[in-house]
Amino acid sequence: MPTKSHSLTFCLERFRALHGEPSHVFFAPGRANLLGAHMDYNGGSVMPVALSRGTYAAASLRNDGMLHLQSSQFPGETVVLPLHQLRPKRTRGWSAYVEGGLWTAMQRWGTLPGLNLVLHADLPMAKGLSSSASVECVAVLLVSRLLGVLANTEEMIHLAHAAETQYVGVRCGILDQTAIFLGRANSVLLFDCLELTREHVPLDSTQACIGILDTGVARELASSAFNQRVAECTRALTIFQEHVPGLTCLRDVRAEDFAAHADRLPPALARRAKHVLGEVARTQEGADALRRGDIATFGRCMTAAHASLKDLFEVSTPELDAMVDAAVGVDGCYGARLTGAGFGGCVAALVHPAAQATFSAQVSAAYCQATGRQAVVQWFAPASGPKQLEL
Ligand code: GLA
User: What's the total number of domains in the chain?
Assistant: First the structure.
C-alpha cells in the first residue's frame, strides 16, 4: 500500500481531533495554465495542467442538518451553520468556495443530512494556482459520493463552475474546473472552450517539468479587476459585432476584422482584443508544436504570451515581469509566463529536468537582485484529477 502523504496525514489528524474518525477523504488538484490566458470567457482554447498539490477534504455525515467546516489555513475560523441556510453571494473569504461547491451540488442532487468537513490545502492560496476552484471541485465530488450519486465528470465541472459564478459571484470561464477534473499525468490538456473539444497532448517528463515560481506577492483586487477584464472583452465584442455579421465571440475576430475596425474601440479595449487574437494564434502554434514534441517552440509561445499579458491585457505586475525575465535567462528554461488571472501570484516555467537545481538557484538570485524579494520555486509534473482516497 502506498504511504500516506504528509498533507493527507495532517488533514486526517485535524479531522480526528475535532470529530473522530472521518468516513471519507478526497483530494482535488490545483492547476497551472500554460497557454491560452484569459481565453476561456472569450471562446478560445486553453492549455492547462493539473498539479500534484491541491486540497484534501476529510468528511463525515451528521444527522442534525448542520455544517461544521474548518480549514487548516484558518484554524481560528470554524464555520457552523445549517446546510439549508447556504445562500449565494452572502459569504466572503475562503469558506464561500466550499459553501458554493456544497450548495450547487446539493441543489442538483439533494441535501446532506449534516456534514463535518475539514480541509487542508498544500497549494499556495491566491497565487494563480486555482486553490479556490480546487476547493469547489473537492466539495462537489464529496457531495456526490456522500449521497451515493454516480455523477459524470461533465456535470461535476459545471457544478463546480457554478459555485464560482453563482455562489461566489466571479464571472470566470470554465478553465479552472475543467483543468482540475480532466487533469492527466504526462500531458497538457488542450481544451477548446467554444467547441468543447479536448485533447491530452503528451508532455515528455524526461524533457520538461513545471516550475512554479512564487513572487511572494498575493494577487490584489483579483476578482474586481478580473470582472473588469471580462466586461472590457464583452464591450469590445459588442463593438466588433456592430460591423462583423455573425460574430459570437472575440476569438473569432479575424486579423482583417481587427485591422478594419480596431480604431472604433477605445485604445484599452483594442489592446484587450489584440491580446485575444495573438493568444488564439499562439495556442494553436503551441499545441501543434507540443504534438510533435517541440517543447522549445511551445515554451517560446509561453514567453510571448507573457509579453502580451503585460503590454496588451495589462494584468502583470513588476514582480511577475522580473520573475519571467529571471526564468527565461537561465539555460534549460523553455519559456515562462504568469499563470492564472494575473495581478500577482506565480509564474509557471517549463524547464528541462536536468537544469532544475541551477534554475532554482539562478532564478532566486536574479529575482532577489531585481526586486529585493525572495522567490519560492516548487517543481511539479502534470497530475490526474480529483479522487476519493483510501483512509
Ligand atoms: C482565472 C479564471 C479563469 C481564467 C483565468 C485566466 O483563473 O478563474 O476562468 O479566465 O483566470 O486565463
Answer: 1
CA distance 167 to 156: 15
Pocket test for ligand 1, best of 97, 131, 176 (most atoms within 8 A of CB): 176
CATH of the domain at 192: 3.30.230.10
Query: Atom 5 of ligand 1 has which residue's CA nearest to it?
Result: 341
CA of 172, closest atom in ligand 1? 9
Q: 385 CB under 6 A from ligand 1?
A: no
Q: Among residues 158, 387, 167, 194, which one has the least CA distance to residue 283?
A: 194
Told to judge if 176 belongs to the known catalytic residues of this protein, a careful annotator would answer yes
Return d(Cα 364, Cα 105) in angstroms, integer.
42
151 within a domain of the structure (yes/no): yes
359 in any annotated domain: no
Q: Does 227 fall in a domain?
A: no
Residue 17's domain comprises: 6-203+383-389
DSSP-derived pairing of the beta strands 24-35 and 209-214: unpaired
* Nearest ligand 1 atom, CA 37: 12
- Please report the pLDDT score of residue 3 as a whole number: 64
- Name the pairing type of β-strands 387-389 and 24-35: antiparallel
Quick: pLDDT tens for 130-147.
999 999 999 999 999 999
Is the per-residue pLDDT at 51 higher than 70?
A: yes
The reply to whether 46 falls in a domain is: yes
